[in-house]
Structure prediction request, 297 residues.
Amino acid sequence: MTIIPFDDRDGSLWYDGRLVPWREAKTHVLTHGLHYASSVFEGERLYAGQIYKLAEHTARLFESARILDMEIPYTEKEIREACIEAGRVQGLDDGYVRPVVFRGSEMMSVAAPKSKIHIAIAAWPWPSYFSPEEKRKGIRLMVSEWRRPGPDMAPTKSKAAGLYMICTLSKHMAEAQGYADALMYDYRGLVAEATGANVFFVKDGALHTPIPDCFLDGITRRSIIALARARQIQVVERYIKPEEVSDFSECFLTGTAAEVTPVSEIGPYHFARGRLTDAMMDDYANEVRGNVRTPAT
Prediction:
C-alpha cells in the first residue's frame, strides 16, 4: 500500500484564520503542543457535502480547549464555518475533517500561559476506518494492557491529544498480533472502550454500553442510543465487568471514524453479526445522509 504523507498533499487547509497551501501549513519543532501535549482536536465526517453533527463537534472542541486552559481566539460560529470551508476547498462531498487546537512556540516549559493558541482545520478523503471486508466479517479485538485513567488522573472529559498515547500503543500491539483493534479497560478494571471508539453489546434484545465516566461520551455513541430508542430498543448504560462479556450475543463499535463496526471477537469471546447490529448500521447510515425513515421495531 502506498502511503501519502500528510505533509505532502495538494490543496489547502484552514490555519489561524485563513486558507493556506497544504504544504505551507508549518509549525516549529519547539511548539508546546508537540512537547507537552497541550493540544485538543476533533474528528468529523462529511456526508454528501454536510458535516454530521458539526455544532456538537465544535462545542466539544471548545469545551476540550477550556479544560486544558486554552482559549480559542475565534467563535464557535467562525470555527463551524471554517470546517465547512476546509471541506469545500478540497472539493469533498464525503470525507474526514480534523480541527486541532494547540499551544505555540512562544514558551518552552511545562507552564506556558503566554503561548499563542493556534487552530488548524484540514479535510481529506477517508472512506472507512476499517476495511469493508473487516466490517463485513466483524473485526477482531485483543484486550489492551493499558487502562483508561480515572477522572482524577487525567482530563478525561476532553478530547486531548495526550490521552491517545496509550491508544496508539494499544492499537500498534493489536495490529502486530493480527487484530484490528484493542478493547481497553478502565482504571477500575471495567470495560471501557476501544482505542478510538465506544463499544456496545447485545443481550436479550437490549443494548448494553459502559457508562462514560472516564472516557468520552462519543457523539456517535449518543446518536446510536437515540436511534435505538426510536426503535423502542432498550438501552442499558451501566458498568460492565470483563467476565460479563461472555454473556453477550452481539458487539459493535461506534465512532466518527469507525461509524458502526461489527465486532466478531474480543480475546476469547466470540460474537455473531446479528439483527440489532445490522439495524444500527442501517439506521446510522441513513441518519448521517439525511435519509429519514420510520424505523421498524
Notes: The chain is about 25% helix and 30% strand. The chain has a mean pLDDT of 95.
